[in-house]
Structure formats: structure tokens, C-alpha cells
Design brief:
4-stranded parallel β-sheet, single chain, 512 residues
């Protein structure tokens, strides 16, 4: 396993935590040493949850390894049942505890507890977080779902949303309303806010809506095979996908596909004058497979962008993303190494990035606008406001998500272009202060700083002030590439100063 400052996915027991934290009446007993007990940090801080995750740890230390850690685990199980009174428990080991091979699943089954005990076998050194969530939810459904008579009205289950999911709370609400417009009630949403008793009722629905393939597909396949429930294959993210989803549900149920689209603003806005000057922008898309596929379609077909690169970090989605990339005439990037992603973004030099929290940081380093469209995300991407991704309102939200970074980036570029203007230069201060703007800064000799050499670069390459000013007139989305090309040209020519002439010569050189 790699240690890094940021990872796209944690180990599989974090996926199990996401399922347990999403549910009610379920408790997770995790055999884990000190250092693996970070669930509170993940869920209460990042997702801003108002209650602690239902996870108990054995929290063994180094000195415990010479004694009976198995007894320590059994004691923790009994304490969790006595204290929290859950309807069921899931048990497993963290990646570190897996090495001591105590077999938490076998130990818990021998305790004779009065509630269902669901063992988890999560291979920490072969699989990752999304697999852990998918496998955990599958095991819960496999152990608890009971044969049921179908409901009198047509109903469905919504499968897949978990804690730490991307906009899962709002997506469930929007999707529930969309299904209601079609005359379909929701039987159970799971794992999010479901109890073990709710899981038992899953087979009463007529079909399942798979909202998140990463975390719910194994359970959907199980219910289809063992309880005769078909599941939807289209995730309704974007206008086209939402219409396809409605048609798919209509085919499954025989109901009308006519749904009120009066709230849908995205198609008109994306054709409006305010947006058309942003069409043709080159975008690079990276994240989990489901959101990448959805946003590639939105970017190309609904926003008029050019998709220059796509990829995903979860290898379970590698095959469909590679097939999609082939359809777009590009090569997919399948990796969980953010440095590879950064290198690909630099190579493609897009004008916008659609990605995760990681790509937000990459965009800041490269000076490229970024919109976050996929987990993993940080606290700012769990808004208090209603902000779904699915359905027609989700399409409106996505329009804002994609357009605003470009608009702000364009504004920054315009301010940079007019940097030498009396109102906008660096020392002018806020424009609304008018005559109170400070004078240009001066150096110790009384000369203006703007007349001096600017910005010392690696390898002793120095940008002279006239060249630096001209560079800043280049649009923000290609400025980084122009800087790198010019520095490379200068080094190849043995130059240590970049003048205005050097910049023009480099431009001519690379234009050939």
C-alpha cells in the first residue's frame, strides 16, 4: 500500500464504515489497532454529520500482540451490543489488524449473540474503499433480505447511496420526487438511512434503481438473481441521461414516460448568449467511473465542450471507462496515483478540469479552473443547501458547477490583461476606493519595482519585466504551457534571461 498526502480511496474497511454510518440500527465492530480509529474525523468533520459513526474498535496496542487479542475482540463485540442495542452488527478487521489473522468473523459467530452477526471478508491489500462499501452492502442484503409479496402499488428501492457519497442526500430527494411524478413510490432507500428491518423489506419492491454502481451493484445483482427484481442501468445525471432513465423506468413498469420538465433550465441556458462564448472549451475529466461517464456526456452533448481526456481511479470501472474513451477518440487514464493525473493534465493542457478534491489542488497549481464533480471531496462539497446532481434540478446545478469556474477564470484573465491600467494594476487597491488607492510600490533606491527583473525560475532562467508582462497577456488556460515552452526554448539556446524577443522567438519555434 502506498502512503501519500492524499488518496482517492481508502482501504476497504473505510467502505464498510460508509455503509454502517449511512444506516440506522446497525453497528460495526472493527478489529483495529490505535491509528486506524479515524471514523469520527472522516464523517463528523468532512461530511458535517450531526452524530458519531456507529463504529466500535478493539483498539489493541503493541503490548497486546503478545497476549490474547481474540478475547479483546470478543469483549468489544459484547460491549457494543450491550451499549448500543443494535438490530444487527457487522464485524471485520482493518488493514493492519488483518495481518495478525484473528478471524473476527469466526470469533463473532461463536459468541451466540441474539442479533444477526454479518461477517466481512475485505482483502485490504488487494481491494479498496468502493469495493469495501459494495461488498459490505451486498453481505448485509444477502443476510437480511427476506422473500416478500410485492407491494400493491408499483414501488422501487433506491440502492447505493452511502455516507461520504457525493451529494447522496440530495440525489435521493430529487430522485424520489422524479419517481413520484411517474406514479412510483419508493419502498426502501439503502444503505442511506435504512435499518436492518428495512433491508428485510427490499424484495417487496417491483424493481431497483441503482443510483451508485460503485457501492450498490453487487446487491442489485443479488436481488435480481434471487428475488426477481430488475434494476436500472442508467444513472440520471444530466438532461439526456435523465430522459433515458425515465424511458427505462417506463419500459420496466409500463407506466407513462411523460414527466414535467418545467423546472429544467439547463438546455436554454447552455444555448444562451451568456454561455455560447464558453463552448468549445477543452476539458479533462477524472473521478469515479459513474460521474466521469455522466459528465463526459454532459460536457460534449449538452455544454458543447471538447473532451480531451477522461479517466477514473476505481479499477472496477476501468472497462466501461476505456470503452467510453474509445468512443470519444481518446485514451482513458486508469490510475490511483494523483501525480500521473497531474502529468496527464499538464500534457493535455485543458482549459478546464472536472474532477475530485485532488484535481482541485492540481488545478490551483497549474492555474486551470476546476469544478468538483466526484468523490473524494472535502467539507466545502457537502453544502447545507439543496444541491442534487441527478434529475432535472441536478442538471441545473451541474450547469452552474461547470460554468462558474470558467466565468471566474475569464474574469481573472481580463483583470490580468489590464494589469497596467490605472484602475487595475497590482498597487491600485480595490477599485471602489477610488482616489484612495495606494501609489505604486518603490524599491529602496526610489525606482519603481515594475522596471526591475521579474520572477527567477529554476535552472537560473530569469524572466525580464517586459517578457513577464507580455506573458500575462496570454489567456490563463494556455499561459502555463507558454511559460514552460519558452523556458525550454531558452535553456536549449543556452539563454539565462528571457526577454520579449525570446518569448516571440519561442512562440514562432513551437508554431512550426
Amino acid at each position: 500500500m502506498k502512503l501519500t498526502v492524499w488518496t482517492y480511496e481508502g482501504p476497504p474497511h473505510v467502505g464498510a464504515m460508509r455503509v454502517a454510518t449511512a444506516m440506522k440500527g446497525l453497528h460495526y465492530v472493527l478489529h483495529a489497532p490505535q491509528g486506524d480509529t479515524y471514523a469520527d474525523l472522516l464523517f463528523t468533520m468532512i461530511e458535517r454529520r450531526d452524530h458519531r459513526p456507529p463504529v466500535s474498535y478493539t483498539t489493541f496496542q503493541a503490548r497486546d500482540l503478545g497476549s490474547d487479542t481474540a478475547t479483546l475482540f470478543k469483549t468489544s463485540c459484547q460491549d457494543a451490543v450491550d451499549r448500543f442495542d443494535p438490530q444487527a452488527i457487522i464485524v471485520g478487521a482493518s488493514c493492519t489488524a488483518e495481518l495478525i489473522q484473528d478471524d473476527p468473523a469466526g470469533l463473532a459467530e461463536t459468541m451466540g449473540l441474539s442479533i444477526p452477526v454479518i461477517p466481512l471478508e475485505l482483502p485490504s491489500y488487494q481491494r479498496k474503499e468502493n469495493f469495501g462499501a459494495d461488498e459490505t452492502f451486498y453481505q448485509i442484503v444477502k443476510h437480511l433480505a427476506q422473500p416478500q409479496a410485492r407491494t400493491q402499488r408499483i414501488t422501487c428501492n433506491i440502492l447505493g447511496p452511502t455516507a461520504l457519497g457525493f451529494r447522496a442526500r440530495d440525489d435521493v430527494e430529487e430522485l424520489t420526487g422524479l419517481l413520484s411524478d411517474m406514479g412510483i413510490d419508493v419502498n426502501v432507500v439503502a444503505p442511506l438511512n435504512a435499518t436492518p428491518a428495512d433491508i428485510a423489506r427490499l424484495p417487496a419492491a417491483h424493481f431497483n434503481v441503482l443510483l451508485s454502481p460503485e457501492t450498490g451493484e453487487a446487491a442489485a445483482r443479488f436481488l435480481e438473481k434471487n428475488h426477481g427484481q430488475p434494476y436500472t442501468k442508467t444513472v440520471p445525471i444530466g438532461v439526456g441521461a435523465t430522459r433515458d432513465f425515465i424511458a427505462e423506468v417506463a419500459t420496466l413498469t409500463g407506466l407513462s414516460a411523460q414527466v414535467d420538465e418545467s423546472r429544467l433550465r439547463m438546455p436554454w441556458w447552455s444555448r444562451s448568449v451568456d454561455s455560447t462564448y464558453l463552448t468549445g472549451k477543452r476539458v479533462f475529466i477524472f473521478g469515479d467511473g459513474t460521474h466521469v461517464a455522466a459528465h463526459a456526456r454532459i460536457a460534449r452533448d449538452e455544454m458543447g465542450f471538447e473532451v480531451v481526456g477522461i479517466g477514473c481511479y476505481n479499477r472496477e470501472m476501468a472497462r466501461p471507462i476505456r470503452a467510453l474513451a474509445k468512443e470519444y477518440g481518446i485514451e482513458a487514464l486508469i490510475t490511483d496515483d494523483y501525480l500521473e493525473v497531474e502529468a496527464a493534465i499538464e500534457r493535455h493542457a485543458p482549459e478546464m478540469i472536472l474532477g475530485t478534491q485532488m484535481e482541485r489542488h492540481i488545478g490551483k497549481r497549474l492555474g486551470i479552473p476546476c469544478a468538483v464533480i466526484s468523490a473524494p471531496v472535502h467539507v466545502q462539497d457537502y453544502p447545507a443547501r439543496y444541491s442534487p446532481q441527478v434529475g432535472f434540478e441536478g442538471a441545473n446545478v451541474i450547469f452552474d458547477t461547470l460554468i462558474h469556474p470558467l466565468v471566474m477564470g475569464l474574469e481573472e484573465h481580463l483583470l490580468t490583461m489590464f494589469r497596467d491600467d490605472f484602475e487595475f494594476h497590482d498597487a491600485a487597491g480595490p477599485s471602489h476606493h477610488g482616489g484612495h488607492s495606494p501609489l505604486p510600490a518603490e524599491d529602496a533606491s526610489g525606482g519603481s519595482i515594475s522596471g526591475k527583473m521579474m520572477d527567477v525560475q529554476p535552472d537560473n532562467v530569469i524572466w525580464l519585466s517586459d517578457a513577464e508582462r507580455e506573458l500575462k497577456k496570454i489567456p490563463f488556460f494556455v499561459r502555463g504551457k507558454a511559460r514552460r515552452n519558452t523556458e525550454t526554448f531558452a535553456l536549449e539556446k543556452g539563454l539565462h534571461e528571457i526577454s520579449l524577443d525570446t518569448l516571440y522567438e519561442a512562440k514562432a519555434h513551437y508554431a512550426r
